[in-house]
UniProtKB/TrEMBL annotation:
The keyword Phosphoprotein applies. It holds the Pfam family Response_reg. The keyword Transport does not apply. This is KDP operon transcriptional regulatory protein KdpE. Gene3D superfamilies: 3.40.50.2300. The modification 4-aspartylphosphate is found at D68. Residues 19-135 form the Response regulatory domain. Signal peptide: none annotated. It comes from Lignipirellula cremea.
Length: 139
């Protein structure tokens, strides 16, 4: 189990109103995650479809994307591929946060361009560690 204070100390340097786009069609999940991330100082944007996720990514240039696999108009993996092929969005780190955890889904997520995969339900502190790691990576 992660200790919250140990996770948050390094995040303070990286946060500085870092924009995180949450792409999830579950409004309750999006709202709860957005609230939690706002408490830690992150600015959040939300989208509930692949189309809106692409638009928000291009228009708002988030620093990181948290992405569900199942979306009403397609797969989050499709969104990953679209963003990976776009010269304006290819470098945005993506963390897949999904209830689907088969080896093929995880492998496809990595192939599509996701940096990390986290299975729902998840430990919020584990997500913070992944966010920190993704924001510190340089590509």
């Amino acid at each position: 189990m992660f200790e919250t204070s140990a996770c948050l100390a390094p995040l303070e340097e990286a946060v500085d109103r870092t924009k995180i786009l949450i792409v999830d069609d579950d409004d309750d999940q999006s709202s709860a995650l957005s609230y939690r991330l706002n408490k830690y100082g992150f600015a959040t944007l939300t989208a509930d479809t692949v189309e809106r996720g692409v638009r928000q990514s291009r228009d708002k240039s988030p620093d990181l994307i948290l992405l569900d696999v199942r979306l009403p108009d397609g797969s989050g993996l499709d969104l990953c591929r679209i963003l990976a092929d776009d010269p304006h969005t290819w470098s945005i780190p993506i963390i897949i946060v999904s209830g689907m955890e088969s080896q093929s889904v995880v492998r496809n997520a990595r192939t599509a361009g996701a940096r990390f995969f986290l299975k729902k339900p998840y430990d919020p502190n584990a997500l913070l560690v992944l966010i920190e790691n993704a924001l510190r990576e340089e590509f």
